[in-house]
């Protein structure tokens, strides 16, 4: 497998000169990444479609309505997985940023760059579905509930990262800055969460009953877990596809630059 | 340490030679605070209810103003590279910038706090607490903002991006600061809230310059 690298053509990404052979470093080679992810991506996409094809109809049509909330409880099957992805995705972003800062993996840079719009989308969907759910249940589109507020702050962090990474003409500089910002955010998220919890209990004590307290019945829990797995697979497939596209985009740009340089030379 | 002191002195001297920048921030603070009564009407009770949050929000917005040029001029004429080569460390450079920013922008805001507080009908007992809360909160923002300014250095639309990055992270300071002023206005103890604000400041004091220094060192 190691000899196959040369077949993928000249690599436009700067490779670490003496990359260690073992561990994660094996995947830092863009050529190998493209080949491997090209094999994984169809399976990942198919798995996402399959699991969502089972989970969504199960949750939206065949699971029982809630005894209190009726049919509106079905928003849960989109809302909760999006909330998981919004938070888990940010943990992934922080991890990728550590990889990018310490080992300077160009692939980690690209993955972080392509992760943040998808993460922002998941967070936006979480907020939007929550708002749609809040209208019939709480009688309002928005309350300054502690959880809602922290998810809103998380949304701003995602957007800030996506905007900062793209704000530099030098993409590598943008990636470094984004990585540092993601780590600042990762330190700050618990502080924001704590202060918002505390602010909320100060201002409006437990005015909103939450679903979490009584625990979920298996009739709701199993489709929810299925949907959660399906959306996670779809999230991973989206990020992988975007990262592949970004690698290829860079490769095309490097080839065009090389061609232009050749044309200029006498 | 001497070099660090010299750097701080240089920043302060530069600010003293252009006092209009500090005055503009103070004026902006008072103006934003004066906008709130127009928005919600001149009823004294409503204003007093809103005063703590309005003070905090106005002060943070005013302190954000000079941040986008914090490193800009130095980066353009090469001074920043010299500072980074001077041997005092990128984090120390960032800390000096943050301290200077607070002394030049945060401190003058404290002087204007009673004016803005009076306009917003804030109870006079709460003025000392308001000044303490604004002092700590602007200190926290100076540190965060220095990191934000270092991150957006050389970015397109950096001036627009900076508040987008910094303000969400400053929410805890708004919460604790406003709660402290509110408690003082209600005749309660403001100390626990101010201590929490102080804890935020103490946590940001080493971490924010480190992050800013890491961003400054990115070539």
How would you sum up this structure, described in words?
Chain A has 266 residues and is mostly helical. Chain A has a single domain (30-205, 219-264), classed as Up-down Bundle (Four Helix Bundle (Hemerythrin (Met), subunit A)). Helices cover 73% and strands 0% of the residues of chain A. Chain A has helices at 30-62, 76-102, 106-138, 146-165, 171-203, 218-264. Chain A is globular and about 80 Å long. Residues 1-11, 15-22 and 204-213 of chain A have low confidence and may be disordered. Chain B is mainly α and 219 residues long. Helices cover 82% and strands 0% of the residues of chain B. Chain B is built from ten helices and no strands. Chain B starts with a helix and ends with a helix. Classes of the chains: A mainly alpha (266), B mainly alpha (219). The interface between A and B is medium-sized, with 30 and 28 residues. Chain B: Its main location: membrane. Chain B: It is a multi-pass membrane protein. Chain B: Belongs to the CcmB/CycW/HelB family. Chain B: InterPro entries: Cyt_c_biogenesis_CcmB, Cyt_c_CcmB_bac.
Summarize the model shown:
The complex is a heterodimer of chains A (266) and B (219). Chain A is built from 6 helices and no strands.
Rg result of chain B: 18 Å
**Taking Cα atoms only, what radius of gyration of chain A do you get, to the nearest Å?**
22 Å
- How far from one another are the termini of chain B? 25 Å
| Unreliable segments of 5+ consecutive residues of chain B | none
| Coarse morphology of chain A | globular
Helix/strand/pairing category of chain B:
mainly alpha
Structural class of chain A: mainly alpha
Regarding CATH, which class of chain A? Mainly Alpha
Question: What number is the mean pLDDT of chain B?
Answer: 89
Discrete helix count of chain B = 10
**And the CATH topology of chain A?**
Four Helix Bundle (Hemerythrin (Met), subunit A)
């Amino acid at each position: 497998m190691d000899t196959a690298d040369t077949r993928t053509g000249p690599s436009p990404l700067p490779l670490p000169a003496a990359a260690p052979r073992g561990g994660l470093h094996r995947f830092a080679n863009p050529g190998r990444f493209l080949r491997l992810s090209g094999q994984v991506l169809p399976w990942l996409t198919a798995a996402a479609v399959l699991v969502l094809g089972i989970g969504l109809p199960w949750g939206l049509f065949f699971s029982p309505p809630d005894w209190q909330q009726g049919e509106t409880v079905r928003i849960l099957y989109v809302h909760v997985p999006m909330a998981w992805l919004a938070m888990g995705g940010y943990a992934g972003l922080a991890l990728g940023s550590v990889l990018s800062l310490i080992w300077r993996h160009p692939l980690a840079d690209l993955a972080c760059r392509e992760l943040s719009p998808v993460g922002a989308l998941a967070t936006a969907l979480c907020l939007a579905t929550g708002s749609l759910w809040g209208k019939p249940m709480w009688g309002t589109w928005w309350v300054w509930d502690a959880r809602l507020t922290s998810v809103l702050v998380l949304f701003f962090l995602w957007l800030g990262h996506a905007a900062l990474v793209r704000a530099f003409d030098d993409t590598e500089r943008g990636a470094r800055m984004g990585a540092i910002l993601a780590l600042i955010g990762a330190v700050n998220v618990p502080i924001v969460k704590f202060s918002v919890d505390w602010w909320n209990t100060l201002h409006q004590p437990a005015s909103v009953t939450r679903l979490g307290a009584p625990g979920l019945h298996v009739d709701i829990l199993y489709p929810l877990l299925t949907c959660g797995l399906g959306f996670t697979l779809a999230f991973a497939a989206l990020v992988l596809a975007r990262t592949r596209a970004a690698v290829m985009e860079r490769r095309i740009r490097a080839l065009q630059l090389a061609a232009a340089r050749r044309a200029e030379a006498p | 340490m001497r070099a660090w002191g010299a750097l701080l002195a240089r920043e302060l001297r530069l600010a003293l030679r252009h006092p209009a920048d500090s005055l503009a921030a103070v004026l902006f603070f008072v103006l934003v605070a004066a906008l709130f009564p127009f928005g919600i009407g001149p009823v004294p009770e409503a204003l007093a209810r809103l005063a703590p949050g309005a003070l905090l929000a106005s002060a943070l917005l005013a302190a954000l103003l000079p941040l986008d040029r914090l490193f800009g001029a130095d980066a353009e004429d090469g001074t920043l590279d010299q500072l980074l080569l001077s041997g005092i460390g990128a984090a120390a450079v960032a800390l000096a910038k943050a301290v200077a920013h607070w002394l030049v922008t945060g401190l003058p805001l404290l002087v204007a706090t009673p004016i803005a507080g009076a306009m917003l009908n804030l109870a006079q007992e709460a003025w000392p607490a308001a000044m303490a809360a604004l002092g700590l909160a602007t200190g926290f923002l100076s540190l965060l903002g220095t990191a934000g300014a270092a991150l957006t250095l050389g970015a397109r639309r950096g001036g627009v991006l900076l508040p987008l990055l910094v303000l969400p992270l400053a929410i805890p300071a708004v919460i604790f600061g406003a709660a402290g002023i509110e408690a003082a206005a209600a005749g309660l103890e403001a100390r626990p809230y101010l201590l929490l604000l102080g804890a935020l400041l103490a946590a940001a004091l080493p971490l924010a310059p480190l992050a800013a220094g890491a961003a400054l060192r990115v070539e």
